[in-house]
Amino acid sequence: MDERTETKKSKKESRTINTRRKMFIVYVYDLHAKNKRSFNRTKRLFYYHINRLPLKKELWKTKSALAVKPGMEKVMDSFFKRFGKSVTVYKIIAEKIEELEL
Question: Which of these, 32, 47, 63, 68, is most buried using a 10 Å CB contact count?
Answer without folding.
Answer: 68
